[in-house]
Amino acid sequence: MPRETTPALLIAALPLLLLAAAAPSTPLQDPEGNAGQQHAEEETKLAQQMLLIEDAVKKLRRSLRKEEQRDDSLALTVQMQAAALACKAETPTLLTSLGEEERVIQKNAYRLEMLGFLEQALLLERALLEGDQERAREIFAGLRDTEDPGHERFTAGG
After folding, report:
1. pTM passes above 0.70
2. Are 15 and 23 contacting, i.e. CB atoms less than 8 angstroms apart?
3. What are the pLDDT digits (tens) for 10-46?
4. Which of 47, 64, 58 minimizes the C-alpha distance to 139?
5. Residue among 47, 157, 33, 29 at smallest CA distance from 104
6. Ranges of each domain in the chain
7. CA-CA distance, 73 to 125, in Å (whole number)?
8. CATH fit for domain 37-154, picks 1.20.120.10, 3.40.50.1820, 3.90.199.10, 3.90.740.10
9. Which residues, other chains included, contact 20 with Cβ-Cβ below 8 Å and sequence gap of 6+?
10. SS3 63
11. What is the tens place of the pLDDT at every residue in 80-128?
12. What is the CB neighbour count within 10 angstroms for residue 36?
């Protein structure tokens, strides 16, 4: 990516970063021993955010076909970005059964996968803002291709 586009991407991502900073976070370990209950809540948060992403992807598949639905596509893209940012802060259930060292490695890999997804979502937004519908559809196709490998790696059901 050319250097001159990096500041523009950072500016475009600023609202998402502010949203993430304002969102409450939960510690990974609970000193009171409520780890099971806390984990169930985190799993629910992750699942809820993933459902928001899935819903946005389904709607984007339709809206990206028509240039006159650009505003809808932009709104869906921003919703998808916000949900992905929230997912990045969570821990997939599958990782809780791993040893500490492996969990740290896999959590890092998960976050990198989510960052890749977010980068593609930002590029999708850029293409839409620039009015490049064809490029937006190409980016979206690549974005959808990341779903199955990520789920296979980080969910029990694949």
Report:
1. no
2. no
3. 445 544 443 444 444 444 344 444 445 445 544 468 8
4. 64
5. 29
6. 37-154
7. 9
8. 1.20.120.10
9. 85, 86, 89
10. helix
11. 999 999 999 988 888 888 899 998 999 999 999 999 999 999 999 999 9
12. 10
